[in-house]
Amino acid sequence: MQVYQLQPGDDLEEASRLFDAYRQFYKLTSNQSAARTYLSMRLQSGQSAVFLAEAQGKAVGFMQHYPSFCSLAMAPIWLLYDLYVSPSARGAGVAGTLMDIARDHGKSTGAAYLQLSTAHANHTAQALYKKHGWQLDETFRYYTLSLETAI
Question: What is the number of domains present in the chain?
Answer without folding.
Answer: 1
